[in-house]
Amino acid sequence: MVAEQIRARGIHNERLLAAMEEIPRHLFVPSFLLERAHDDGPLPIGEGQTISQPYIVAEMTAALALMGTEKVLEIGTGSGYQTAILCRLAKEVVTVERIASLQTSAERILRELGVENVRFRTGDGTLGIPDEAPFHRILVTAAAPGVPPPLFEQLAEGGIAVLPIGGRWEQELIRVTKESGKMRKDFLGGCRFVPLIGQCGFPD
Ligand code: SAM
Predict the structure, then answer these.
(1) Are 93 and 19 in contact (CB under 8 A)?
(2) What burial class does residue 35 get, using C-beta atoms within 10 Å of its C-beta: 0-12 exposed, 13-18 middle, 19+ buried?
(3) Number of domains in the chain
(4) Which CATH number does the domain housing residue 88 bear?
(5) Ligand 1 mean position to 177 CA, how many Å?
């Protein structure tokens, strides 16, 4: 999966590639999809949600440029697969999921893998986690109509956020950098995500 889908497409961040080689993706997919765990695409994880395509996980994580010292906020825990990778590459991770059953399952898998530098929250991630802010990095793994203002507020100066922005069905992946309190946006390419549902996202 890493050689054919990620390295071959031009991602050469060795720390990231090593993390993706080590984290057992098959643990994060439903048992009836075990044989497809390393497919080159997203897979259903229940509740109408998906585990993202391996390449998009790699692309978003690479765009965060993690050095290992960062406090990261992830919105959209889903299966917990992306969370496990962030935990390998950053100092600490706070992850938020609005669907409690997904959060519970992700938490169980990460505990079984011995991941300790993560805190789980259930609720509307479009509001961020003010009592944990500021964050050096923010990753949103669901599609937002725009950059949720609370997330930009909770981003540290010099920090980076990566998120899909656009309509419910098609979006652009963007990297937001906070420079002197202002937002600089870089466009990384087209993508398709499930919607970010919440006060600063799409209506349910
Ligand atoms: N990164 C995940 C993985 O590796 O499995 C995939 C995440 S899935 C594409 C997007 C997730 O965002 C879904 O689990 C969905 O329930 C969650 N979500 C949507 N709106 C949310 C919100 N306002 N706050 C927190 N999570 C939200």
Answers:
(1) no
(2) exposed
(3) 1
(4) 3.40.50.150
(5) 22
Cα of 35 from ligand 1 centre, angstroms: 23
Pick the residue whose CA is nearest to atom 18 on ligand 1.
Answer: 76
Alpha helices in 113-188 (DSSP H): 149-153
Residue 89, in any domain of the structure: yes
- Of ligand 1's listed atoms, the one at least distance from the Cα of 45 is 5
pLDDT by residue (tens digit) across 77-123? 999 999 999 999 999 999 999 999 999 999 999 999 999 999 999 99
**Around 196, how many Cα atoms within 13 Å sit in the side-chain half-sphere?**
31
In a domain, 81, yes or no: yes
**74 Cβ closer than 6 Å to some ligand 1 atom:** no
pTM score: 0.98
125/77 Cα distance (integer angstroms) = 10
Cβ neighbours of residue 87 closer than 8 Å, sequence gap 6 or more: 93, 110, 115, 117, 118
| Residue 52 designated active-site | yes
C-alpha of residue 170 to centroid of ligand 1, in Å = 16
Among candidates 174, 193, 165, which has minimal Cα distance to 42? 193
Active-site residue, from 31, 52, 79, 101: 52
Question: Is cis: bond before 42, omega within 30 of 0?
Answer: no
